[in-house]
Amino acid sequence: MQFGSVDHPQDIDFSLPADHIDTSSVLFKSANKGQPNIFVGCSQWSKTKLKGFYPVGTKDPLTYYATQFNSVELNATFYRIFPPETFTTWYHKTPDGFKFFPKLYQDISHWKRLKDVDNVVDDYLYSAVNLKEKLGTLFLQMHTNFAPKDFDRVEDFAKSWPTEIPLAVEFRHTDWYNDRSVADRLYDVLETYNISNIIVDTPGRRDLMHMRLTNGTAFIRFVGANHESDYSRLDEWVERLKKWKQNGINDINFFVHQNIEKESPLLSAYLIERLNTELGTNLKIPKKDQNQKLF
């Protein structure tokens, strides 16, 4: 992922901002007193991108990937609508408990920009639901230039989204979060329709660290800088997630990206090991016998 990349990450203040004032009340409403559902994964299972992750001779990357991780952020679905049979194949290649988190097709978000998209959404969901219980939260990523002047489109889309399918939304135009009146209106819509507010932690766009949850699900897209600070950043996230667990969060969906994606599995493994230690989870640590820090 190139979004928010920088040339000199050592010059960035990566400290996590304090929670938005309303996040604690949202978590209180979710009222989960047990262990949250936690899914950690990469953005893809490509052998080309995740170089060095797959054993020599691996014939089916997804089948192997699913033995190491419990989830994947499915970015391929942004570029085209796959037929139902493809989703069915993916379903059968993965074990019980594995989940896919597909990105909505770009025709919805970038071309039509949420206007007159009902038929496209129906076509997309007709295929995606073939993942059955392995279908995690779908997510909508809007273009950086999609601004609050089109707020009505967001509200109409939220109203029309089928309530039985979990949805998360990522906005990239700075005014969605840094114009107080717009942000408050947006949070109200997302809460009303039980839509998760994605947090993007990327080096060059610290303005997007709103730390505002809108339901009991934290959906975090973490972009490393291929720098030693990536590990201390993840340490901070573990502390924040521990706090959110204590406050009653239901689900944590955390996906790791790198500009050089071959390092994503290693960072993910580090995060999972820290979550197991600090949150009391028992998640598989990918390729545990080969894990070591890069820096």
TrEMBL record:
Superkingdom classification of source: Bacteria
InterPro entries: DUF72, UPF0759_sf
SUPFAM superfamilies tied to this protein: TM1631-like (SSF117396)
Regions that span the bilayer: none
A Pfam match: DUF72
PANTHER family the UniProt entry points to: UNCHARACTERIZED PROTEIN YECE, UPF0759 PROTEIN YECE
Protein name: DUF72 domain-containing protein
